[in-house]
What we know:
There is one protein chain. The protein is α/β, with parallel strands linked by helices. It has helices at 2-25, 79-86, 150-163, 179-194, 219-232, 241-244, 275-280; strands spanning 29-31, 33-34, 52-56, 65-70, 100-102, 121-125, 171-177, 200-206, 266-269. The chain has one domain: 3-Layer(aba) Sandwich (Rossmann fold), CATH 3.40.50. The protein is built from seven helices and nine strands; from the N terminus they run H-E-E-E-E-H-E-E-H-E-H-E-H-H-E-H. The strands form two sheets. A seven-stranded mixed beta sheet has the order 2-3-6-4-7-8-9, covered by helices on one side. A two-stranded antiparallel ribbon has the order 1-5. Helix 4 links the parallel strand 7 and strand 8. Mean pLDDT is 91; it is low at 1-23.
Amino acid sequence: MAKMVDQRLKLIICSVFALNAQLVFGDSFLNFTFLESAVSKGAVCLDGSPPAYAFDKGFGEGANNWVVFLEGGGWCNSKSDCLDRAKGYFGNSISRPFNRTFFSGILDQTQIFNPDFYNWNKVFVLYCDGASFMADVERVDPKTNLTYRGARIFDAVMDEMLAKGMKNAENAILTGTSAGGLATMLHCDKFRGLIPNAGRVKCISDSGFFIHGTNLPGAEYRLRRFAKVVKTHKLAKLLPTSCTSKMDEGLCFFPENFVQDIQTPLFILESAFEKFQVTSLSQ
Ligand SMILES: *[C@@H]1O[C@H](CO)[C@@H](O)[C@H](O)[C@H]1NC(C)=O
Ligand SMILES: *[C@@H]1O[C@H](CO)[C@@H](O)[C@H](O)[C@H]1NC(C)=O
Ligand SMILES: *[C@@H]1O[C@H](CO)[C@@H](O)[C@H](O)[C@H]1NC(C)=O
């Protein structure tokens, strides 16, 4: 319960921030596009709703450059947890206020606030699967009707972007925050593989380096938590085999155990005092 209140409070704070930001920076909300065509491929959110993204077309010198942002929002780690999640903000694509999202940071459309990327093609991928865009479970649980298909969502949205011109990208960045930052690392080489002709492809993981931290308080709790995500979403065969061949799959959701095997240039952005990791993940 406390967690839910906390979540709502964060949403309210974000909304207030977004409102203020809108007044200062102009209208930087972009509508979501629902990828209805993905539904027949089984690429759907936890609740079965279609994937969604928001897209801002590049122009000028950015016309052939792409930045793809994977949204974060924690994970669900049991059937009942995922069932709760499926009803809300991060478990479906139909609960977002006004069906739109705010473009800020690396997605900011203004030259003064985002001089390097403002004119790139920019994509915001809505997070609604609960396992960092990684799951691919064919079977739909008849008791809950939940679908664990994050990897299919990633693939479907990437196909859409390739068709929109990303296949001719000169430069491309895959990025994301939190659970999306973890997804960025897990998908980094796959992303590179989608655009073999691009000159430069790099990944930026923002606040996604979740540590197991065997010598720090709460290590067992953190492992239990991630192991449950891996089990619930059946990720064992989908995590980097360079890691799963050496250790338990639960450990292979921790970047410290697979990041050294990523071939594509990766920039990790992580506060040494990140509040979420030093409080929520250390009891
Ligand atoms: C976004 O959606 C709103 C509400 O449906 C609509 O009024 C607006 O024109 C849309 N904006 C764009 C750029 O399509
Ligand atoms: C958002 O889009 C969904 C799916 O198209 C629609 O059912 C819902 O009414 C829309 N919500 C708003 C606030 O426009
Ligand atoms: C699952 O979906 C089917 C088909 O839409 C529906 O008949 C059934 O009631 C659903 N079950 C649950 C538990 O929601």
